C-alpha cells in the first residue's frame, strides 16, 4: 500500500528523516514507536504530502504522491491528528460533511446521510448540532475520526491521536480506532500508548534520530527485539 524509498526531510539544519525505506503492507496495521523528535510524525505527514520531502520517493497504492494533487490524496487517505483540526465555526454534522461536499463534490443531501451514518458509528449522534468548543477532547477526536472514515479511505494515518486527551478520555478514542484494525483497512499509527500498540499492531516500527532502527511483527518486536536501542526503549516503557 505504501512504499517509501530513501526518503529524506530536513527543517533548516535539522535532518529529521534520514533515508527512510520501508513498505507498509496492504490491510495491515503498523504501529510506529519512538521517543519524541525521532521523526515519527514527519514520516506520517510525508505520506499524504502535508510535508514535502527533499529526496526519495513515496508510492501510495501505485501512485507517486509528489505527482498527485493534495485534494486527490485527501479523498483517499484518512488522517486523524493530535489536535483534532476541526473547523471551529462548523457544527459536528458540517465538519463531517465538509470534505464530501468540497472535495468529492457529493450532493449535500447525500453527503448529509453519509455524514450522519459516520457520526452514529462513533456514538456522537446526540452532538450533531454542537460546535467543537462545546465538546470534550475525546468527543472532538471521535468527530475527527468520523470525518476521516466518511471518505471510505483505503489508508488511515493516525498521528498520536490520544496525546492531547485527558487520561480518562483516552480509552474511548482507542476503542473506536480498534474497530478499524479489523475491517481490512491499511492503518499506520504513531502512538505512545504501548498497551494499545501491543493489542492492535500487526507490525511495529521503532524509530530513533530519523531512522528506522527495528521492524518486525508484534510478537518479534515485543518478545525478541534485536537492536540494543530498541531494548533500551522497551525497558523504559514496559
Give a short synopsis of this structure.
By secondary structure, the chain is of the alpha/beta class. 38% of the residues lie in helices and 26% in strands.
Secondary-structure map:
Layout (H helix, E strand, L loop, with lengths): L1 E10 L2 E11 L4 E5 L6 H8 L7 E6 L2 E2 L5 H7 E4 L11 H11 L5 H14 L15 H13 L5 E5 L7 H14 L5 E5 L3 H7 L2 E6 L2 E7 H6 L4 H10 L1
Parallel strand pairs: 3-8, 3-9, 6-7, 7-8
Antiparallel strand pairs: 1-2, 1-4, 4-5, 9-10
The average pLDDT is 92
Separation of the first and last Cα atoms: 30 Å
Radius of gyration: 18 Å
DSSP strand (E) fraction? 25-35%
Largest sheet: 6 strands, mixed
Kindly report the spatial arrangement of strands forming the biggest sheet: 6-7-8-3-9-10
Question: What fraction, in percent, of the residue positions are helical?
Answer: 25-40%
Low-confidence stretches: none
Number of helices: 9
How many strands?
10
Determine the structural class based on helices, strands and strand pairing: alpha/beta
Instruction: Give the overall silhouette.
Output: globular
What pattern of helices and strands is seen along the backbone?
EEEHEEHEHHHEHEHEEHH
How would you sum up this structure, described in words?
There is one protein chain. This protein is an alpha/beta fold. 38% of the residues lie in helices and 26% in strands. It contains 9 helices and 10 strands. It has helices at residues 40-47, 70-76, 92-102, 108-121, 137-149, 167-180, 194-200, 218-223, 228-237, and strands at 2-11, 14-24, 29-33, 55-60, 63-64, 77-80, 155-159, 186-190, 203-208, 211-217. The strands form 2 sheets. It has a 6-stranded mixed sheet with strand order 6-7-8-3-9-10, sandwiched between helices. A hairpin with a 2-residue loop joins β4 and β5 (63-64). α4 packs across α5. The radius of gyration is 18 Å and the shape is globular. The model has no long low-confidence stretch (mean pLDDT 92).
